[in-house]
Amino acid sequence: MTTSLTDLEKKVISLLQTDIPVCKRPYLVMAEQIGISEEKFLEVLSGLHDRNMIRRFGATLKHQKSGFKANAMVAWKVPEERVEEVGNIMASFHEITHCYRRNPSPGWDKNLYTMVHGASEDECFAIAAKVSEATGEKDYTLLFSHRELKKTSMQYFEN
């Protein structure tokens, strides 16, 4: 079943794709940008959520500006029958921001991936070792980011 969006709903979604103002009443500021009341903005937002058009909000931390100078994708080889259990343990670590299961590829047998951020590469290695100890999984590789080429959020509608 396809659910169509109203023009107002598209405007609200379009605004939510941008940086939300850092102020006491960000939805008021956003509502004023499209010429509606804060109450109406929140009503539309609530309706989109109720229809599962918007499931959640997430903040994106600019980790370099927050003191984290190193980040690594940790690629793990985990037995398939343990992926759910191990993934849940890994996801419980506050140092881990992402945890995904992916299909292995020819020549690359890793199937579970986590993202860690640290003040240094040594700290990232220490985090991975701590996670390894907690899960019992010892087969992993750290892939460090050396340069960010692109980082954007999904854009569903143009502003």
Task: Give a short overview.
This protein has 159 residues and is α+β, with helices and mostly antiparallel strands. It has 5 helices and 4 strands, in the order αααβαββαβ. Helix 2 crosses helix 3.
Q: Quick check: average pLDDT?
A: 89
Tell me, what's the shape?
A: elongated
**Count of DSSP H/I helices:** 5
Structural class: alpha+beta
Which regions have little confidence, pLDDT < 50, spanning 5+ residues? none
Rounded Rg: 20 Å
- Estimate what percentage of residues fall within beta strands: 15-25%
Order of helical and strand elements = HHHEHEEHE
Let me know the largest β-sheet: 4 strands, antiparallel
C-alpha termini separation: 27 Å
Can you offer a commentary on this structure?
The protein is an alpha+beta fold and 159 residues long. It is 35% helix and 16% strand. The protein is built from five helices and four strands. It is elongated. The mean pLDDT is 89.
Key structural traits:
elongated; single chain; 159 residues; 5 helices; alpha+beta
Write the layout of secondary structure elements.
Layout: H1 7-16, H2 26-33, H3 38-50, E1 70-76, H4 83-91, E2 96-101, E3 112-118, H5 121-135, E4 140-144
Antiparallel strand pairs: 1-3, 1-4, 2-3
